[in-house]
Amino acid sequence: MTAIYQALVDIVDADHVSDRPEELYIYSFDLGTAEPHRPDYVVAPRTTEQVREIVRLANREKVPVVPLGGGLSLAGLAVPLRGGILVDLKRMDSIIEVNEKGRYALLECGVSQGQLTSYLATHHPGLTHSEPGAPPTATIAGNVLIHGQGDLAQPYGFNSDQVNGLEVVLPTGDVCRFGSCAIGASWFTNHPLPDVGLFFGWCGTTGIVTRLSIRLYPARRIRGIGQFVVEDEELVPEIIGKITRTQMAEDVIAYSRAIPPFGLGLQHFTVNIAADTEKELEFKQEIIWDDTLGEYISRGQGGYLGFTRGLDHPQVSKSSDYKKGGGFEYVGSIMPIERYPECYRRGREISERHDIPYTVTGRIVGVGHSMMFAWTYAFNRADPGSMREAREALHETDDLVIELGGVIWKPGTYGQQLIIERLDPGTRALMRRIKEVLDPEGIMNPGNWEGV
Amino acid sequence: MSIDTYEFNDLIHRCFRCGYCKFPTNWMDVNNCPPYARFRMEPYSCGGRLWLTRAWLNETLDWSEHLAEILYSCTTCRNCEVKCPLSFNVNIVNMVVAARGEMIERGKVPQSVRKFLENIDLHGNPYGNARSRRDSWMEGTDIDRYEGQEYLYYVGCTGSYDTRAQRAARALGTLLGRAGVSFGVLGSEENCDGNEVHKLGEAGLFEMLAENNVERFSSLGAKKIVTLSPHGYNAVKNLYPRYGGDFQVFHYTRLLLELIQEGRLPVSAGFDARVTYHDPCFLSRWNDEYETPRRLLAAVPSLRLVEMEKNRDAALCCGGGAGNFEIDLLGGSDASPARQRVRHAAETGATVLAVACPKCLVMLEDAVKAEELEGTLAVKDIAEILAEAAGAH
Fold it and tell me: How far is B4 from chain A (nearest CA, A)?
């Protein structure tokens, strides 16, 4: 038994610390194609104070610390590339406060999307949050920290735009709070204090967020999904512009995929509409389907596929079973909407080159300000060749994102290097200095954003 | 060894570890897989177990006592199968059971599992008690031996030997007698039903138990079998037909409801309490029986039934399935499933936690003591509640 192991047991407890092969094996993997790397220890703390003590221990011992939320980034962001202590944060899962009038929720970092959705539906049915298309085990904090987007991204932007405050254990073990909570007020706003902005998009290299406050939004009584389809991908940016101009929709997604075969080459739209009354719903549907999209139907360019009440959250893990192979990974990008046609065509080419049924998806972020465009590649986990094909397709797609003028979303190490190579020298120097100041021992999730 | 010989070698890699399996149907937390709820470390999740199994079968990971304990900590409650959105979900528990079978074939099982199976082989029960004492629960009753009556009342190991569960076994016997049901028991001639043996992956021992029981039941002319335990119910109803067992099988709740509806079992004395009901996995998720126990409780005057937030197919297992009531790989913590479950019950304001399974009864009563809820929350089998309501206790 090592001194570090015993120290971790002293900080947390023996049930939630391990250096045994079984735990180290499981925590060495991302769920996508990233190569596994074993941690030396796994620990699942319950409190901020325990996280702080773990980080202090890591500083003293100069061993890496890798924070893990839901583990669903599919980009290898929580794979312990240099070993060290993997910190599974999912036990920190208290919903500390929901403020009905202030419309915010204060959460511990391990609260899952499914947990918050269920809690709001039961205790605050008038409120909702922007829920990503990830499995419900994805954590709120993890999604926020990678600049995730949810089903309210069209009106309200990235989930990281919807944060009111953070509690962070810095790489030195200091604990800081940001937002209105930093001056002892409630966690109701992130403004107007000086913007620190040191934790979003940094892939856990600048600290461990232990609490956060996020904005909640009115949950309308009626929510549903309308579907529309066109054949010509060149029409998609124009249609998105028109739908978002109505400001009548919640979520707007355009997608195309090879399976089922009858959908091959078609561009589908799902448009979430919410209303408090039938009259309001009817009005919004008329504005969107008749007044906005009716011209495409009358010209024979598109078709209305109907409206389904209720939000049927996508069970994205089904993508993993396309090849009965248990695996999929995607490249996400933040992309100008006008690039949709090329994203679709070039992505389809990559998929077909690697013999993978193509799936491309564009979710609108902001009122048409950008989209998160994703290319998904299924693989068979039992077939190394299939995994290799998917990995190559993913790297080609990372290159494509840069070529098309987009920004790789939650990049893995390959994508991070593509970004670093192109990073403005002044920005790169500033990032380096920030990293050196915050993490003098270089212990936080090393291997990520390396070389800035 | 090779994964090629593993029964589910074409399936086991298909688990993505998306984690749906950790949730109850209402999504309220990630604590509905009993081992994961207990340890909150990924190897103990359903996906973690499947990935570890595959690694072991692929010889990427060596066998260890810890690996085996992780695998045997699964209570086979089937919450994962309810929640998993993928097409292979019906075989998740089968994959775990088959992996246990692989371990047994190689003689590599935890000591507690070895002892459990050894006791059943030697003594016909997992506790290691003498076969001759299997009828001790009947002492002081006038319950008859089975000699071709209409129903064979199969008590099972827990009801026969555990002193707490014996009270439930006697209550059911009293109720059947009160209703004028023609029934008898096997007493010391009864043997283990083997449900847990099957779930622990010991196919050979299970086959022997099943064949012997089918032979015994048949030779005695039994056509209708009523069980105290949902575990025994599951074995006789769903597993014994493979061995020629062709019986009408009832869990006792179904029979008692019929007796009440037919007016043969008056419960007019009532039961004045706020009661919440815990669904036992082998009655609910395994056999789709959610409403009969509730209808039974609703038939009792003065009884106020309240639901826990996790109910029906969202219920958290007590942690006792697949032998864990004795092997106890999930105990020793306030995060133990049974302790979590009695806290759920206490949150409803109920003063009685009703169960329909002797294993749940024992697990949850122990948990009430550990949570220091004695005096606040009593755990009772539905048979005991009905016996009180029938004035037969």
Answer: 12
Domains A222-309 and A320-409 are alike in CATH topology: no
Separation in Å, CA of A318 to nearest CA in chain B: 6
Across the interface, do B39 and A117 touch by the CB < 8 Å criterion? no
- When scoring A19, A22, A50 by the number of chain B Cβ atoms within 10 A, the one with the most, hence best to mutate, is A22
User: Residue A376: beta bridge partners?
Assistant: A330, A359
Average pLDDT of chain B, as a whole number: 97
At A205-249, the pLDDT tens digits run: 999 999 999 999 999 999 999 999 999 999 999 999 999 999 999
Please report, for chain A, the start and end positions of each structural domain, with discontinuous segments joined by +.
3-88, 95-218, 222-309, 320-409
Q: Is the full-model pTM beyond 0.95? A: yes
Return the percentage of chain B with pLDDT > 90, whole number: 97
Shortest Cα–Cα distance, A138 to chain B (Å): 9
Alpha-helical segments (H) within chain B: 34-39, 46-57, 65-72, 79-83, 92-105, 111-123, 157-161, 163-178, 195-199, 203-219, 230-234, 252-261, 291-298, 324-327, 337-347, 358-370, 382-389
The per-residue pLDDT for range A183-213, each reduced to its tens digit, is: 999 999 999 998 878 999 999 999 999 999 9
Q: How far is B107 from chain A (nearest CA, A)?
A: 20
User: What tens digit of pLDDT does each residue of A112-159 get?
Assistant: 999 999 999 999 999 999 999 899 999 999 999 999 999 999 999 999
Q: What CATH code is assigned to A222-309? A: 3.30.70.260
Q: For residue B17, which residues of chain A lie inside 8 Å, CB to CB?
A: 31, 71
CB spacing of B87 vs A321 below 8 angstroms: yes
Domains annotated on chain B, with CATH: 3-109 (1.10.1060), 113-258 (3.40.50), 267-389 (3.40.50)
A44, A137, A328 ranked by CB distance to B40: nearest: A44
Contact B66 A321 (CB under 8 A): no
Which of B16, B29, B66 is nearest residue A320 as measured by Cβ atoms? B16
- Own/partner contacts of B253-257, CB < 8 Å, gap of 24 or more, are B253/B283, B253/B289, B253/B292, B253/B293, B253/B296, B253/B356, B253/B382, B254/B289, B254/B292, B255/B151, B255/B176, B255/B181, B255/B226, B256/B175, B256/B179, B256/B296, B256/B382, B256/B383, B256/B386, B257/B292, B257/B295, B257/B296, B257/B299
Q: Does A12 touch chain B (CB under 8 A)?
A: no
User: Is the CATH number of domain A95-218 3.30.465.10?
Assistant: yes
Number of A/B CB contacts below 8 angstroms equals 116
- Chain A touched by B269 (CB under 8 Å): no
Among the partner-chain residues A25, A317, A325, the one whose CB lies closest to the CB of B52 is A25
| pLDDT greater than 70 at residue A314 | no
**Residue A63 and residue A85 in contact, taking contact as beta carbons nearer than 8 Å:** yes
Complex prediction ipTM: 0.96
Topology, domain A3-88: 3.30.43
The domain defined by A320-409 folds into Vanillyl-alcohol Oxidase; Chain A, domain 3 (3.40.462)
